Amino acid sequence: MPERQWRVPVSLPAAKLAGAALLVALALLFADGDPVRLALALLVAAALAAWAARDLLAPVRLALDAAGVTVISGFAGRRRLPWAAIEAVTVDRRPRLGLATETLEIDAGETLHIFGRYDLGDSPREVARTLRAARAAAGS
Asked: Is the C-alpha dihedral spanning 53, 11, 111, 65 positive or negative?
């Protein structure tokens, strides 16, 4: 079975970095010499840049092969889950702010791995379908 990967879309870390730069520019423009306002804006911009760095350091959030899946763990680590360790692959759909959001949930017993559309660069429903088919083909 060929390996398959799902990753953060390239545009997402670029947008986060652009947002951080815009936030710094606006803070410098509108801080009016207030160090608290400037420090708060710089802190939020740094957090946004760190979030973008994670997307750049570990863009692949989920990988599939015949033996199981590899998921992101922590800031940029990886964790291997063989098919036997995976209890369920589900899609949770919830209404939020007038829109329905979907998340892919991989239940591995003591751990639950949750991925959204922007983690996968694809529909969680489609990824779940692919994972279930691969799991069935592997005989688990």
From this structure: negative
Residue 1: predicted pLDDT: 46
Q: Which of 79, 91, 89 is nearest to 134 (CA)?
A: 89
Could you give the residue ranges of the DSSP H alpha helices within 33-122? 35-57, 117-120
Q: DSSP labels for 105-127?
A: EEE-SS-EEEEEHHHHTS-HHHH
Q: Report the distance separating Cα 92 and Cα 73, nearest Å.
A: 20
Task: Please tell me whether the overall predicted TM-score, pTM, comes out greater than 0.70 for this model.
Answer: yes
- Dump pLDDT digits (tens) for 73-103: 988 899 999 999 999 999 999 998 888 999 9
Give residue 105's Cα distance to chain centre: 12
The residue segments making up the domain with residue 24 are: 11-56
Amino acid letter for position 127 = V
Last residue of a domain, one of 38, 56, 74: 56
